[in-house]
Each structure stands twice: as structure tokens, then as C-alpha cells.
Design a protein that fits this description.
mainly alpha, five-stranded mixed β-sheet, two-stranded antiparallel ribbon, 76% helix, 6% strand, rod-shaped, ABC-type transporter activity
Length: 631
């Protein structure tokens, strides 16, 4: 028999019948199925990061800048993150975020602390410090999720740095603008100062111009005074002559005054004798027997008769006094008045010239006053300009920073790198290999269980032929696989931990979870083989491919297309990978308990299917005696 004939016979054998033809077609489609699903699932995982839950904690209380503006950079960053839809952001409290990352509700958490805005503004106050963004990750949730989170934080840091840099540059330019404005004000003040100085100079010139006429007027005044002095040189002689004349008048008037005084004395003596005559008459009348009334009537008549004498006597006495006074000063007054009248024209001329000089002096004084006023106004403007220049320059100086060298260097460093990232890792895989270890350990456990049934028969034919209990037969077929699977796990775990040097945080628990995982996978594949026979092996291979793309072994499982979400929830490998991550990296053991319960449910369910298969196979059929497809 030739090789070609043997090949033809084998092809005819595996394609004889309907089911073998379908098996060949399915085997041909396995590479396509694997490649298509895997590439579909991982074509663009970054496009689906918005399905990855992440916690956002905004504790920033904001800050007030030196110009009075209120800044809340934390809210700005949060708004930008949420509106960007890069992740499924959830704004929560710090405690909820930490617990969420710990139990896997959130892949990571981003925290903006209370003083975030204040730190970003610190450079402007010359108390520079970096703003801190806190990133909380947990490799037990997903190793690459933490890597992606770091990239997100780097992007946030870059964005904030750009904004802070732009604001810092804006303030710097604004400071230069302020300095320029203040310098312009200072220049205007200097201009005003120059104008005031010019006006002061003009006022001084006016003062000089006014001083000339004032000097001329003063000279004329001196000339007038000199002339007045010349006109009054003979005044002493004239005064002496006046004294002499006054002496002569005094002598003449003395004679008249004496004569008048003599007449006055005689008149007074006459009046005295008349008083004596009145007394004598009264005495005689009383002696002659006249009554007192008659006496008084006679005396009254005599008094009335002598009234003119008494009046004349009074006038004589007054005239004598007046003549005495007139005699004393008449001549002096006459001579002095005549001389004064003769000298009056010259005196009047001198006074006129003096008045003219005084007028010129007054005019000069007016010009001097105006010049002094202009000078004063110019000096006032000079003072105002100087004040404005002073104030403008002082205010400008206040606007110019003057930090010391350490502060300036620190400020420059902070402006160049305003944000620092402080990473807080709840758990850490330590290396890329350790990060992928949970996925590959789970995958290896499934493959190990799969190849076991290439040699092992899922159900004992002898037990079935003997009519044994279906559960007993199912357990009898499952236990050899469990034992061999346990051996696979022990050998694999020993090599991984001792040779590859990947050390789990909980080694004993990790080994126990791997044994549970192996027992569960053996049970699933045992059930498929027992229930479906050769087709069950093919289904086991398909399930392997489906779990490769849906278990979340590399990227977070939320990055797979939404139509594949049911595969993650419905197949066991995702739970195995999740439990191994938490055990190997030190994550929440509560999540491990949930994963273990789900795997245990798969184990029990698979054993139930195996029992059902054993129950059915107690009856022999032609297809069992001569199956169409043997793998």
C-alpha cells in the first residue's frame, strides 16, 4: 500500500459520516476562532478604558491668589477627568475609595488633597512647594490597570503643569506690564516735574523783571527825600524867628492882659461894695421899722437893678482870661503859620515826588508778587510731580519681586515642575512576570486538566457495565484527574516559586486555591468529556479560547467589548485569576472567598453533570459501540 493510498484511507476514515465531516471543519476553524476572538478582544483596549471603574477623591479646599481671585484646581482637574470619559470615574470619599480599591470595586483611585490649589499658588507667594496627586493602586485588581493608572496620572500632571506654567507666565508678564505701567506713570511724573521747573524758571524771571522798576522807584524815592531835606535846611532859623515873634507877642499881650486884669479887679471890687451897700440898706431899713418882707422886697429890687453890673463883671472877668490866653499864643501862631505857609509848596512838591516813588515801588511790588506767585505755583507743580514720581516709583518697586537666591531657585524649580505624584500601592506584583502569573497559572491549570483526558477515560466502562451507582462512577472517573491535577499544581507551584522566584504573599493559601482551581477545571472538563464524548474535548478547547479573551489576565476585563462581558461572568477562569491575584499580591481575602465559592459551585455543578452522564451511559447504544468520531 502506497503512502498516497494510506493518506486517502485516513482522510476517508475521518470524513466518513456527517459528524466526522463537522469535526474536521471545526478543527479547521479553531485557529481562526482563536485569532479572531483574541484580536477582537484586544484590538483597542484603550478605547474601552471608559468602562474601567476608577475612584476620584477631591479634597481640595481651593485657595485665594494674591490678586484676590479664587482658584480650585482640584475641581478643575476633576471636571476635566470626568468630561474626558477616559475612565469610569466615580467621585467618592477617601474611605470609600480606599475600600473600593481594596475589594476590587475600583481599579485604582486618584486623590487631590486639601492643599492642592494652595500648593500650586505657592510659587507666586515665594513659599514654593509641589502639589501632590495621590494614586492608589492594587495589583490584585489588575497589574496593567495600575500601569494605565500611572499613565493617566502622568497625563494629569502634564495638564496641570501646562496650566500652572501658563498661569505663572501670565503673572510674570502681568508683572512686567505692571512695572511698565508704573514706569510710565513715573515718566509722566518726571515730565510734570520738568514742566514745573520751567514754570518756576519763568516765575523767577518775572521776579527779576519786577525787581528793576522797584529799584528805579526806590532811587526816585531817595531823590525826593533828598530834595525834601534841602527844602527844610532853613527850618531851624525860621523856627527861631518864630520863637522871637512869639516872645514879642507875648510881651504885648502881657501888657493888655495886665490892664484887663486891673479892670477886672476894679470891677470885682465894685461888685463887692455893692454887696456891702445892700447889707447896710437892709440894716437901716430894719432899724427904721420896716418889716422883713419889705426889706426882702427892697433887696430883690436892688438885686435886679445890679444885674447888668454883675453880668458886665462876669464878662470882664472872662474877657480878661481870654485876653491872657490870646496874648500868650497869638503871635507865635501867626509867625509860625506864615512861615509854614511859605514853606508848604516845597514841602508839597517833595511829598508828591515821594508819593510818585512810592507808587513805582508799589508797582514793582505787584510785579514781584506776581512773579512770586508764578514761582510758587511752579514750585507746587514741581512738588506734585515729585510726589507722583516718588509714589509711582515706590509702587513699581513693590511690584517687582526681590526673593533671595534659595527662594528664587526653589521657585524656578517649582514652576518648572509644579506637580509631584506620590504613589500609594496597596499591593504590588513586583515585576511584569509576577503581574501576569495569576493569568498564566490559571491558564496552565486549565490546559493541564484538558490534556489529562487525552489519556484518561472520563467514566469506567466496567463500572457502567456492572450497573454501579452513577455518582460513584462519576467520582471514580473524576478522582484520578484530581490526583494528577494536584501533582501538576504542586510541580508547577514549586518551579514558579523556587526557580522562577515568584513569591506569593500567601503561599499556603495560594497553593490551596490552585488545588481547588485544578479540581474545578478537572471537574468541568470531566463533565464535558463524560457528557459529550469526543465533542466535549473540542468544547473544552473552545472554552479555553473564550476564557483567554475574557478572563482579564492582561488588561482589565472591563476593556473587552461589551458583548463579551457575559463570558467573563459565566466562565470560571476569570474567578480563578482574580482569586490568585489577591492571594499572590496580598489583596482582600474577602474577594478570594467569593471566588472560591464560585469555583466550588462550578465543581459541584460539573460533578452533577458527570453523574447525569454516567446515569445515561448505563444503557449501551449503537453509537457508543461504534462511534463516528474518535479523538
Amino acid at each position: 500500500m502506497t503512502a498516497l493510498r494510506m493518506a486517502f484511507n485516513e482522510l476517508r476514515r475521518i470524513t466518513s459520516g456527517k459528524l466526522p465531516k463537522l469535526a474536521v471543519l471545526a478543527l479547521a476553524l479553531v485557529p481562526l476562532l482563536y485569532a479572531a476572538l483574541y484580536l477582537y478582544a484586544n484590538k483597542d483596549p484603550y478605547a474601552n478604558l471608559n468602562q474601567v471603574p476608577a475612584a476620584l477623591v477631591v479634597q481640595d479646599k481651593g485657595a485665594t491668589a494674591s490678586d484676590g481671585t479664587v482658584k480650585n484646581a482640584g475641581e478643575d482637574v476633576a471636571t476635566e477627568l470626568i468630561s474626558g470619559h477616559k475612565f469610569d470615574w466615580h467621585r467618592v470619599s477617601a474611605d470609600d475609595a480606599e475600600e473600593g480599591v481594596r475589594n476590587g470595586s475600583y481599579t485604582f483611585a486618584l486623590t487631590l488633597p486639601e492643599d492642592f490649589s494652595q500648593a500650586l499658588l505657592s510659587s507666586g507667594e515665594f513659599t514654593p512647594r509641589q502639589g501632590v496627586i495621590m494614586l492608589t493602586t492594587n495589583d490584585a485588581n489588575n497589574y496593567l490597570g495600575s500601569t494605565i493608572a500611572n499613565q493617566v496620572v502622568a497625563e494629569v500632571r502634564r495638564s496641570v503643569s501646562v496650566k500652572v506654567g501658563a498661569e505663572a507666565a501670565d503673572k510674570l508678564l502681568l508683572g512686567f506690564s505692571t512695572i511698565r505701567a508704573k514706569t510710565v506713570e513715573a515718566a509722566e511724573g518726571a515730565t510734570t516735574l520738568a514742566d514745573g521747573q520751567q514754570e518756576a524758571l519763568t516765575g523767577s524771571q518775572k521776579l527779576v523783571d519786577g525787581a528793576g522798576p522797584l529799584a528805579d522807584g526806590a532811587a526816585q524815592l531817595a531823590a525826593g527825600l533828598r530834595q525834601l531835606r534841602d527844602q527844610t535846611q532853613d527850618l531851624p532859623v525860621q523856627a527861631q524867628r518864630l520863637a522871637d515873634g512869639a516872645k514879642q507877642v507875648s510881651d504885648g499881650n502881657e501888657t493888655v492882659a495886665k490892664a484887663a486884669e486891673d479892670y477886672a479887679a476894679k470891677a470885682q471890687a465894685l461888685v463887692g461894695r455893692l454887696d456891702q451897700v445892700n447889707g447896710d440898706i437892709a440894716t437901716r431899713l430894719r432899724a427904721a421899722g420896716f418889716t422883713e418882707e419889705q426889706v426882702q422886697r427892697v433887696l430883690q429890687t436892688l438885686t435886679e437893678a445890679r444885674a447888668p453890673v454883675d453880668d458886665a463883671n462876669g464878662k470882664v472877668q472872662g474877657t480878661a482870661g481870654q485876653l491872657r490866653t490870646l496874648a500868650n499864643g497869638a503871635k507865635q501862631v501867626s509867625d509860625g503859620a506864615a512861615q509854614l505857609a511859605a514853606s508848604t509848596p516845597a514841602l508839597t512838591g517833595a511829598i508828591t515826588k515821594l508819593d510818585d516813588g512810592a507808587a513805582q515801588v508799589a508797582a514793582g511790588n505787584a510785579q514781584l508778587r506776581d512773579g512770586a506767585t508764578s514761582l510758587r505755583d511752579g514750585e507746587q507743580k514741581l512738588l506734585d510731580g515729585t510726589t507722583q514720581l516718588r509714589d509711582g516709583l515706590n509702587e513699581g518697586v513693590q511690584q517687582i519681586p526681590n526673593p533671595d537666591d534659595p527662594t528664587r531657585e526653589s521657585t524656578a524649580d517649582t514652576i518648572g515642575d509644579p506637580v509631584n505624584v506620590r504613589g500609594v500601592s496597596q499591593t504590588s506584583a513586583g515585576s511584569y512576570g509576577a503581574g501576569l502569573a495569576p493569568f498564566f497559572l490559571g491558564l496552565a491549570t486549565w490546559i493541564g486538566a484538558f490534556v489529562l483526558f487525552l489519556l484518561l477515560k472520563p467514566l469506567s466502562r466496567r463500572g457502567l457495565a456492572a450497573g454501579q451507582n452513577a455518582l460513584r462512577v462519576a467520582l471514580g472517573g473524576w478522582l484520578p484527574g484530581v490526583l494528577l491535577g494536584a501533582a501538576q499544581v504542586v510541580i508547577m507551584f514549586s518551579v514558579v516559586t523556587l526557580v522562577v522566584d515568584i513569591r506569593p504573599t500567601h503561599p499556603v493559601e495560594t497553593l490551596g486555591f490552585l488545588l481547588l482551581t485544578s479540581a474545578t477545571f478537572v471537574a468541568v472538563l470531566h463533565a464535558l468529556n463524560a457528557l459529550l464524548g469526543a465533542v466535549g474535548k473540542f468544547v473544552g478547547l473552545v472554552l479555553l479560547i473564550l476564557q483567554l479573551v475574557s478572563a482579564g489576565g492582561t488588561f482589565p476585563w472591563q476593556t473587552i467589548p461589551v458583548p463579551l462581558y457575559p463570558l467573563h461572568y459565566g466562565l470560571p477562569m476569570g474567578y480563578a485569576v482574580d482569586g490568585l491575584r489577591h492571594l499572590m499580591y496580598g489583596g482582600s481575602l474577602g474577594s478570594v472567598g467569593k471566588d472560591a465559592l464560585i469555583l466550588l459551585a462550578y465543581l459541584v455543578g460539573s460533578l452533577a453533570l458527570s453523574t447525569f452522564a454516567a446515569y445515561k451511559q448505563r444503557v449501551w447504544t449503537p453509537s457508543r459501540l461504534k462511534p463516528e468520531l474518535v479523538l
